[in-house]
Amino acid sequence: MTLNTDNFLHYLEREKRYSAHTILAYHNDLQQFTDYLSDQYGIDEISVATAPMIRSWLAGAMQQGLSRTSINRKLSTLKSYFRYAGRRDPDLKNPMEKVGSLKKNKVLPVFVEEEGMNQLLDRSVFEPGFAGQRDRLMLEMLYTTGMRLSELIGLQHHDFDTEKNTIKVTGKGAKQRIVPVIQEVSDHYDDYCLEKEKEFGLSVSGHIFVTNKGSKIYPKFVYRLVNAYLSKVTTRSRKSPHVLRHTFATHMLNHGADLNAIKEILGHASLSATQVYTHNSIEKIKNVYKQAHPKA
After folding, report:
1. Is 277 a residue of the active site?
2. Is 21 annotated as catalytic?
3. What's CA 110's distance to the chain center, in Å?
4. 3-98 placed in CATH 1.10.150.130
5. Given the residues 98, 172, 232, 284, the one annotated as active site
6. Which of 23, 26, 244, 283 has the highest CB neighbour number within 10 Å of its CB?
7. What is the pLDDT of residues 153-194, one digit of tens each?
8. Distance between CA 19 and CA 90 in Å, rounded?
9. What pTM does this model have?
10. Which residues of the chain does CATH 1.10.150.130 include?
11. In this structure, what are the phi and psi dihedrals at residue 100, rounded to the nearest 5 degrees?
């Protein structure tokens, strides 16, 4: 390693207070690039590398099957190094100004098919009594409103308006939104409240969802419950509460819901966050096209 590179790593450790693990990753990235420059160009000093040299190194990494995420991490290492080197030597040209990051592969949201959700929410799936009523209502809430896990946990009885069939959801940054619920969910909520009162002798106040012992539910509790029920109807590897949020948005879009309306219900700050669900709809359209068009 060159002196400048050693100084850079020392700077990350002493001034930036990076962890030993992070510094090791920076060290490995810089060492690999140093070795490449030495082998390919006979250069031992990273600071004289040019943009074409960096691109050539990255192209080789891609040919070796390195992921875009890993390559972007290496780019981040070089960007940090050249920013540091530029502060040490103002006359030094920064080649990273001409090297852009790779676009990450888009990961489509995982969702459960409608048939699976219909099977899941069938009354016969749930045990009679308080726990069964709670489990069904919890799954229905996640699926029919698209709310986040933290939002579900925070729900209180005064948030649910059964006359208007709406529920007040408190999202990120304590922002509140009113979300519509279907009549069936309102009816199940009433049934659940009766069972809850019968089970614990509690008045209908405080948090809506509680454990079998009557205490407020918590993230791990909901994860385990959702995972167990989704395992009955899907073989997908991910079976988290967030999958039901994705499922809600995807099914709404597939049935013609306006994207802006979905955005408001989900509590997204911008439309771009909601647009990811259009990709699933496009894939569905492509499949229908391939199956139906005589020339496909």
Report:
1. yes
2. no
3. 10
4. yes
5. 172
6. 244
7. 999 999 999 999 999 999 988 899 999 999 999 999 999 999
8. 28
9. 0.62
10. 3-98
11. -95, 160
